[in-house]
Specification:
This protein is α+β, with helices and mostly antiparallel strands. It has one domain. It has 3 helices and 6 strands, in the order βαβαβββαβ. Strands 1-6-3-4-5-2 form a 6-stranded mixed sheet, with helices on one face. A hairpin with a 2-residue loop joins strand 3 (60-71) and strand 4. The radius of gyration is 14 Å and the shape is globular.
Length: 125
């Protein structure tokens, strides 16, 4: 189940803290290797299921998107998927690296567009 995260709710602190931590992690968006012509809801959920680290602290995930601009193929997005603990904190491994991935896509499928709506951060439980 995906929940939309809104900065106007009582989750302001989580939203702001998460965006700051993601921004620290996402410094170099132009050297990303993983590029998807189209990113689908199924691919996002498959990643959360199949690539979930074996860490008992992980309880859910978050998807963050950043609009990078328009391209010939469509709107270009920077996408980050991270894993969260019970308190919605980003989980790091023993070397203080985030569990997750980041990629660039030229298009989001309709299901992902509907989930994001006007938001840039959604929780996946």
């Amino acid at each position: 189940m995906i929940k939309k995260q809104t900065p106007k709710s009582e989750s302001d602190k989580f939203y702001q803290k998460t965006i700051k931590r993601l921004n620290d992690w996402l410094k170099d968006t132009f050297n990303l290797v993983d590029t998807f012509p189209i990113l689908t809801y199924e691919e996002v959920m498959t990643y959360f299921i199949n690539e979930r680290p074996n860490d008992e602290r992980i309880k859910k995930g978050a998807i963050w998107r950043q609009f990078l601009g328009n391209s010939v193929e469509g709107k270009k997005y920077h996408i980050a998927q991270v894993f969260l603990d019970e308190g919605n904190e980003i989980v790091f491994d023993k070397d203080n690296k985030l569990y997750g991935r980041q990629l660039v896509t030229n298009k989001l499928d309709d299901e992902l567009l509907n989930i994001f709506a006007e938001k840039d951060l959604v929780l996946v439980e």
